């Protein structure tokens, strides 16, 4: 199946002379949830804006469902829904009218049954006659999504969808995004919340200083770059790691009560069995042990730091 979005050799230099994107190549698969991560100013919004036809690409090409976003702008844009970061809603309009109007902007004929479905899916149906200014921030965000979906796009961009929303609404938003994906919509989201990418994404792209430094299946990424740790809670504190164990990647906590062993999550041999034997030989007893895996956040911070 051809990619739903194909970005090839895309670079962008703003009029100021600042190069915001450098030779980006990216293919988004139909029906996936793709999370774009990157620190502030990395180029996420620039990339999304180019794909959505809001900012002109400098060099390179972008196809959305086979349509060139510059040469064939209208066809490309009709495939895309964009939920921008800022809430821009017409305060005096009703939910129903604003969502129906958005559909009209894309030249689509009225389809009340579809709008009704979108509002119901987003739990907005009982607010359809409410003026936007009377809605809570969370409800307004839902309206932004409904507007973006009004013309039945196949691709939905969510720019920082849960910035500043409470935990409960975040969970609701995640469920909504999953439900949308289940209807076949491809979702691309940018986020600063790494746990959001960890929770939601099928694949993850990391952008830093205008360069796409990594694109990977989430599970693969966690496997490849993730480190695992074994923490041993000692019976009696140690002053230092015994010399007989110096060949192991062991760290002693400041109070001497914990030994932490870091090992490769992918490696065939973790070395734990031999380590435990050596500990016993050294007369070190422990009362508890637990393993942990580094989070996507650790991986992300390391990736970006390496390139700083
Ligand atoms: N119109 C513009 N003219 C000049 N420079 C710009 C323009 N728009 C963005 N930039 C610069 O391009 C870089 C990338 O900006 P962009 O908004 O794409 O980053 P971002 O990854 O979305 O950041 P954030 O996470 O803060 O939203 C930044 O250094 C920004 O200052």
Can you tell me the overall shape? Answer: elongated
Query: Would you give the CATH topology of the largest domain?
Result: Rossmann fold
Level of helix content?
25-40%
Instruction: Determine Rg (CA atoms, Å).
Output: 25 Å
CATH architecture name of the largest domain: 3-Layer(aba) Sandwich
Q: Please give the number of β-strands.
A: 14
Secondary structure class reads alpha/beta
Number of domains: 2
How many helical stretches? 10
Unreliable stretches covering 5 or more consecutive residues: none
Any idea of the CATH class of the largest domain?
Answer: Alpha Beta
- For the record, what is the CATH homologous superfamily label of the largest domain? P-loop containing nucleotide triphosphate hydrolases
Hetero ligands: adenosine-5'-triphosphate
> What's the order of the H and E elements?
EEEHEEHEHHHEHEHEEHEEEHEH
Main sheet attributes: strand count, strand direction, barrel closure: 6 strands, mixed
Q: What topology, given as strand order, has the largest sheet?
A: 6-7-8-3-9-10
How far apart the termini lie comes to 37 Å
Mean pLDDT: 88
Proportion of beta-strand residues: 25-35%
């Amino acid at each position: 199946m051809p990619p739903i979005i194909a970005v090839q050799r895309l670079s962008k230099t703003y009029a100021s002379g600042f190069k915001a994107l450098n030779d980006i190549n990216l293919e988004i698969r139909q029906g996936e949830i793709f999370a774009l991560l990157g620190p502030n100013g990395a180029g996420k919004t620039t990339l999304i804006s180019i794909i959505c036809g809001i900012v002109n690409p400098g060099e390179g090409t972008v196809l959305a469902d086979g349509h060139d976003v510059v040469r064939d702008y209208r066809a490309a844009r009709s495939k895309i829904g964009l939920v921008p970061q800022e809430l821009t809603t017409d305060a005096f309009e009703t939910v129903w009218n604003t969502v129906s109007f958005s559909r009209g902007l894309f030249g689509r004929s009225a389809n009340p049954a579809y709008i009704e479905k979108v509002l119901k899916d987003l739990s907005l149906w009982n607010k359809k006659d409410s003026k936007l200014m009377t809605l809570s921030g969370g409800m307004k965000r839902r309206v932004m999504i409904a507007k973006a979906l009004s013309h039945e796009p196949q691709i939905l961009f969510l720019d920082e969808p849960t910035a500043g929303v409470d935990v409960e609404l975040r969970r609701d938003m995640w469920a909504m995004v999953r439900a949308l994906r289940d209807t076949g919509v491809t979702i691309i989201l940018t986020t600063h919340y790494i746990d959001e990418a960890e929770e939601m994404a099928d694949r993850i792209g990391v952008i830093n200083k205008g360069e796409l430094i990594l694109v990977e299946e989430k599970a693969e990424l966690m496997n490849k770059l993730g480190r695992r740790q074994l923490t041993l809670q000692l019976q009696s504190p140690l002053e230092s790691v015994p010399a007989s164990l110096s060949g192991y990647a062991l760290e002693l906590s400041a109070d001497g009560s914990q030994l932490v062993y870091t090992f490769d999550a992918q490696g065939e041999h973790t070395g734990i069995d031999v380590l435990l034997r050596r500990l016993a030989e050294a007369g070190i007893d422990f009362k508890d042990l637990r393993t942990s895996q580094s989070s996507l956040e650790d991986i992300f911070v390391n990736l970006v730091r390496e390139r700083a």
